[in-house]
Amino acid sequence: MLNEKLLKITLGFIILLIGIGFWTIRYMLKEDSSISSYENVAAKTKATNVSTDANEVSLDTIYINIRSQKFKIMKADIALIMKNASSKKALKGNMENVRNAVLQYLNTMDSNGLDTLEGKERLKSELMGMIEENFGYEVETIYLKNFILSP
């Protein structure tokens, strides 16, 4: 009699767990017009590359073969902070030529040391000088975003 009672309690508990499992799965997989909780979290935490600086101009992502002993490919998102709105407007109007000049410069420069902080600072100052010298645009600073060197 005790065994029968224990068996009924055990079966009742198992049925309860199965019911809770089905309810949980149904709740997690419900297909309605609302966004799943995972998509809500992803949408809230998604990073953007949009700057709040009014004088920032992005050169988009650059992939280029470089001359280096350790590395063969460089990927970088380069953003220029212009000193004034007129320089920004002029740069945007001539973006293809500026981007081409930056690509040519990166392709011909000695890329050894770009994996160090000093090398990145040297690259930024050389790019600023090249842009100011060749185009006359007043660049305040350059940001290297998502900078990757690949062997």
Question: Could you characterize what this model shows?
Answer:
The protein is an alpha+beta fold. It is 52% helix and 21% strand. The protein has five helices and three strands. The protein has helices at residues 2-28, 37-45, 85-93, 95-108, 117-135, and strands at 56-65, 73-82, 139-150. Strands 1-2-3 form a three-stranded antiparallel sheet. A hairpin with a 7-residue loop joins strand 1 (56-65) and strand 2 (73-82). Helix 4 crosses helix 5 (117-135). The longest helix is centred in the N-terminal third of the chain and has 27 residues, at 2-28. The chain is elongated and about 95 Å long. The relative contact order is 0.15. The mean pLDDT is 80.
Look at the helices and sheets and give the structural class: alpha+beta
> Low-confidence parts lasting 5 or more residues at pLDDT below 50?
none
- What is the alpha-carbon Rg in Å? 29 Å
Helix-strand pattern: HHEEHHHE
SSE map:
Blueprint: H1 2-28, H2 37-45, E1 56-65, E2 73-82, H3 85-93, H4 95-108, H5 117-135, E3 139-150
Antiparallel strand pairs: 1-2, 2-3
Helix pairs in contact: 4-5
What key phrases describe this protein's structure?
single chain; 151 residues; alpha+beta; three-stranded antiparallel beta sheet; 5 helices; 3 strands; 21% strand
